[in-house]
Input
Amino acid sequence: MRRCNPAPLGLIAAFLLGWEAACRYLGVPDFILPPPSAIFRVAVDKAPLLLAHAGATFLEILLGILLSVLVAVPTAVAMFFHRTVERSLTPLLVASQAVPVFAVAPLLVVWFGYGIASKVLMAAVIIFFPITVSLLDGFKNCDREYRILFRLMGAGFWQTLRMLHWPFALPGFFTGLKVGVSVATIGAVIGEWVGAQQGLGYLMIQANARLQVDLVFAAILYLSAMGLGLRLIVDVIERRVIRWKEPT
Output
């Protein structure tokens, strides 16, 4: 059984106490930097409003994860089994990460509107790259001797992929997925900043315009909890799927 390490909790508690003390001692106005106590109070008092917008953002993230997985898996398979495809797509994948997400978001809003579609695509764009690259590396890590053995035994393409390459690539796939879900909130929120009618990003823009900085921080708190929750879900799924992997 894995034991909880109290060190991160102690560090977080010390940071919050220092933040609270600094705000009160220096007399920082709440519209500049509210203390953690005010942020937690708003997070509780405004819970119905925050949860309503968090539900919209969470749906965008989930659909973005699903879309990115559906595209990343066949892309990684094609890149692994066809070197021409890998040489052709690798520069495009690298270039897609070199373009700032803020530059892509307005285009997606123009093309797909202010609804959920542009936010889902924005989240998928960010998640797609780490999943594809990690899965491709996992395929390449397959032992060459095993591949020769499967070839000698007359295994077909799909049989080799399912019984050999996919088990070898699963740890890499989950590594990329954990990175993807950790940053998925970035894509959804940026899409909501550019143009939306609901979501935590939309709420943050509205609250910031009214100098409700405590509500902005409360929305960030909900986003952080969302990202941590998704990461924990992926960890649980990974432990159930990859039973042979030693726990870290």
